[in-house]
Amino acid sequence: MKYVMIIPDGLTDLAVKELKNKTPLEKAYIPHINFLLQNGLTGAVRTVPDHHEPGSDVANLSLLGVDPRKVRIGRGALEALSQNIRINKQETILRLNFVTVKDDIMIDNTGGDIKSLEARGLIRELNRKIGQGKKFYPGVGYRNLVKISRAGLNIHTVPPHDILGKKIHQHLPEGKDRNVIIGIMEQANRILTQSSFRRTRKIKANAVWLWGEGYAVDTDSFYKKYGLKGAVISAVDIIKGIARLLKMDVIDVPGITGDFHTCYRNKALYALRNLKKYDFIFIHIEATDEAGHKGDYKEKIKAIEKIDREIVRTLLKAQEKFSIILLPDHPTPVKYRTHINKEVPFIFYSKGKALCPNHHFKTYSENILKRPPLFIKEGHTFLKKIFNQRS
Asked: Which string of DSSP letters, residue by residue, matches 118-140?
C-alpha cells in the first residue's frame, strides 16, 4: 500500500471570540477533508511527550517514529542537515532568527518578513565581523543558522515566537554556557544597529535571536523502521532536515514557499507524480502555523480551505489507489501565537477500501478530541498503529 501523509502545521486551535467561540478549523469550509473523515478512521494522538516543548522538530520526528525522549537532536541541527551543513560532536548549532525588537519588547519574530536576499546580506556582514569559532549560514528569509565550535553547550533557549509582546531580557538563554550565546547576540545586535546595508534596504529586522540548540546524533532510517521508501515535500528547512536524518528523499517542488503564498496544488501534484517511486510521501504545509503565530484567524481559515481545495481534492480526484493520513503536528492557537502541548485529531482514509468508520463525526475539528474513538498516547507509535490498520 502507498501512503500520503498531510501535515498542516499548527492546524488545530482554541475557540476564537471573533468567530463566535468557534475555531478556525470549525469555521473553514472543508468538504473534502470531511469526506476523508466520514469514510475513514479517526482518533487523537499526543505528538509531544509531557515535559517536552511542543516544537515542530519534536512533534514531526515523533510522528515519523522517533521517540523524543531517547533522541535529542535539536532544531538547529535538523535545519543544518537540510542545508547539507556538516556538524560534528565538537560543535553546537543554533537557529538564528532576524527579529524586530523595540524598547526591549519582541515585536516580530520574522524581522518584518525579511527576504532571503536581505538576510544573506546581513549574514555576510556577521561572518565578516564576528569570527573566532563562529560561522553564520543563510537560510530562508528570517530562518538562519550559526555554528559554534563548542561541544554540547549547556544552554536552554526559548523560541522568539513564544515571547512575542514580551520583554526579551526576561527570556534570555539559561544554563552554564548562557553567556556564550548572549555574547554572540549582543555583538550581532550592535553590528545590525550600525549596518549601512540594513539602513539602505530599510530592513525592519534590528536584532538576532538564537535558539533551538542542536547536536550531532544518529537514528534508524525510515526504511529500517517500516520497510517503506519515504520522501518529504516541504518548503521549510526543519522538515527537510528531518527527512535527511531519517534518510528519506526530499522532493523539489516549484512554487512552494513556506508561507501564505505557497503553491498548495503543486504539493499534491508532485506527490501523485512520485507515488510510483515512493511508498510513503509526507506533505508538510507551514501556512497554518504561520497564521497562528501572527494571531491571524482569517489567514488561518484561508490556509485551511486551500489545503482542502487544492491538496485534498487533488489527491481524491487521482485514479491511483493509496491511503491518506491527515493531522497537524501540534496546535498553534491564534490567541497565544505559539505552540501548545495538546493532543491532535487524525484521519486515516484508504482509497479503494472501506475501513468501516467506528465514529459518529461528520466534520473534522477539535471536537474529536472530546471523545476520540482511538487515542494514541505516544506519538512515535502512531505510524506503526496506522500501518497495522491495513494489515
From this structure: HHHHHHHHHHHH--SSEEEEEEE
Q: Which of 51, 26, 49, 68 is nearest to 343 (CA)?
A: 49
Distance CA 284, CA 186 (A): 34
Grid coordinates of 118: 536581505
Domains of the chain with CATH codes: 3-70+219-388 (3.40.720.10), 81-214 (no CATH)
pLDDT digits (tens, 9 = 90+) for 30-84: 999 999 999 999 999 999 999 898 989 999 999 999 999 998 888 899 999 989 9
Q: What is the pTM of this model?
A: 0.85
Tell me how crowded residue 317 is: count the other CB atoms within 10 A of its CB.
10
Q: Name the DSSP letter for residue 272.
A: H
DSSP-H helix ranges across 260-323:
264-273, 287-294, 297-306, 313-317
CA–CA dist 388, 385 (Å, integer): 5
